Write the structure tokens for this entry.
Amino acid sequence: MSEARAHIFATIRRALGRQAPSAEQAAALHRRLDAPEPNVIPARAQIDAPARIGLFIAEAERADATVARVATVDDVPRAVADYLAANNLPSVLKVAPAVADIPWSERTALSAVAGVAGGGDPVGVTGAFAGVAETGTLVLLSGPDSPTTLNFLPDTHIVVLAAARIVGTYEDTWRSLRAAAGGDGPLPRTVNWITGPSRTADIEQTLLLGAHGPRRLHIVLVDGDDG
Amino acid sequence: MEATTRNFERNARKALADTKLQEALARLSHGFPAKRRQAIARLPEFEALRDAARDIRNDVLENLDFYLERFETRVGERGGQVHWARDAAEARSLVLKICQDAGARTVTKSKSMIGEEIAINEHLEANGITPVETDLGEYIIQIRREPPSHLIAPAIHLSKGQVAESFKEKHGQFPKDRSLEEPRALLDEARTVLRESFLEADVGMTGANMLVAETGTVVVVTNEGNADLTMSLPRVHIVIASLEKVVPTLDDAATLLRVLARSATGQEISVYTTFSTGPRRPGDLDGPEAFHVVLLDNGRTTMLGSELHEMLRCIRCGACLNECPIYRAVGGHAYGWVYSGPMGAVLTPVLIGIEHAGDLPNASTLCGKCEDVCPVRIPLPRMLRHWRQRQFEGNQSSAASRYGLKAWAFLARRPALYRLAVGPAVAVLGMLGRRRGRFRRLPLAGGWTASRDLPAPAGRTFLALWRKRPAGRP
Amino acid sequence: MSSPPPNVGLFVTCLVDLMRPVVGFAAVKLLEDAGCVVSVPAAQTCCGQPAYNAGDQTDARAIARQVIAAFEGFDYVVVPSGSCAGMIRVHFPGLFAGDAPMAGRARALGERTFELTQFLRDVLQVPDVEAEYIGTATYHDGCAGLREMGVKEQPRALLAAVRGLELKEGGEAEICCGFGGLFCVKYPDISGRIVDGKVDDVLATGADTLLGGDLGCLLNVAGRLKRRGSDVRVRHVAEVLAGMTDGPPIGDP
């Protein structure tokens, strides 16, 4: 225990006019943390699955993401190739291991390598844990098959998302993460909420996309796949 | 940085005469507030969310020790380390030691007000370590050696031309005749330069928008993605945060995030909200090997339970700056230190002493707009009055204003005497002003007539006329 | 009317008393026309706000005691100023934090204290007024009236009934004019910049008249309008509602 720590806790308790919380208080606080309750949830996100997908797309586009919908996962490489061609972008992909099994090169001119992003990778492709309809937000989890740098270093970030993974609110994702929690707690090292491509308005309030992170965020929504 | 809060009036006059700054402030005044209103109009639950956000922050303050302990425990369980700093000097030493232990030569930083508060960059530089700010606005002011002028838009006071000048001076590696006229060119150049820093840095330092007690998680919000590159590429991630930033649960964080971006920029949510819990896990392909959280007190715990208690709810959105008529007139630098606007006028006297920041709580019309827009409903005008009371009671307000006020109050407390005193004065002024209806100049009224005429009084007081009113009708 | 007429104490405010008595008479007329019995206690000077906002709690408290004693016998206290009404309703109770009986009296008085147009609309539910004003007006919302008292629609609803008057909203009607009591003389440069913004907004509406419910703001904006050579007429809303606009506007001869 550092001296600073002891001093800070003593000052807090003196200011609050008590010692450490009583057993009763502590129990209530533990309950608050161990069984978290949601607060106010916007009505606009409490809707059925088809409406959620519609809202997710609308909100993601409002945040300057682009969205393509495909029927099955086999259609994803074609959609990605079309997107890259339409935007004059290189067809060289660095893909997260989580989506490396997709047959990227079978019927397209795409080349795909799995792994972490380097400074020179033009296109990163990842999966996503969820899409949050409320604000068109993607939720990405770090892990052995989903390196975080892929979300930020490439100029173009493409996210493959099963439509069935679109939930209403942020809290829905916390609930499922808690339900699946292992010994390391509910969260992986990094949870990234991503809503649109990187931007800044630091120069004369002029909004510019592509600050340090991706200049483009493209979401390929897979309808017929629930994984 | 050296505080120039004592020179508020001089700073303000300079700011008012600075046409480039005034153009920038006009852009700000018409930008953020309108976007905020639009975002709120789309969310019917916004007021309820403000209440919830306020309640969460209140709960945190009431149980701050409990939540901090829980946060510390969880960070430890996930392989990270929490360090405690009573003041700026302790925080600087802790950060420096972690950097030195990591053999760091370059430290990338994402924007952190705590970094500004403890002046960490100067300290690292003095010890041979190069800090590189990576938020575009913060990078610009770093190379210009200026403090931020806004909580979330640190370079809001600058024009693109000024930025271009600074880049030409700083970035000798590019052709001298390159065009930097458009913001896009400036951004692309900064992106190129900073990309190298991201990849070569040994340590990445970020602030924190929140610390989640439930999971030991640090929440960082940006639009640029710079914090993510800062924390995921180097070997070591240092978080510097003030200790009141803790919140109980992930659900509470979600609630606060719903009001944060809408209040700050008018976005539904910022582009990147990142929840970091400890260092890289076994099997992870990237991420830092070490995760340190430096928690700074710096006087905050003394605010607990005081008249300034509620200021600790602040989530640093900047809405009170954007809407404040004073901030919009003089900008952030006039406030003379790290924090500006209404929140700065309340907080700065805590951090550097009211004797050094006397003007700040006074330079307000108490119009109440700040409290009106505060997402966590901090009664900022009440706190500005609190500081004024402290100054008055400590004899720190100017002698002239004290005597003037006391003399006026002496009369105001004695209605009969007051009538005797004001009647003749009003009569004389009424007579003198009758022809023009107003005064351009008047002895002892220079403060008023400096920028406006003084409308003349009618010549008779209402109460004098009322006494003569015939019973029945006027 | 079956119930007895409301007994109203008019807190005239120091600025109306000293600078512009017609506002007080207009307020009396409006209240009497609406069936009130109006009294003006002689033991009134100021609400104490200048002391309060300067951190001088002792004087503010003494003045508050005086106001409470002078006005607590009335059914209602009506004030032709949102700012002074806010002082009484919102801030008086806090001055007596350690004194429960006084705090109770302050609260009781505060609950019965209203800004003039608010009282006419929300309490008396006056549907309209009998007045004429030929012109186009814009309305400035005084900060305390707006944020502490909730005055926004009431003056506009009443003005809508004035024959010949057209109301044009300024884009920044709710933004402070830079008066701020002692602020405007302590920081004249900043205050000057803020009031310039207000004047720009008023001029942008094309209105020939500026109305408001707080004489402090109106003196400030009128002073700047005149300094800039504008012929926009400035009046307190009560003057127009009471049809008492024969005298010169604020700052005009």
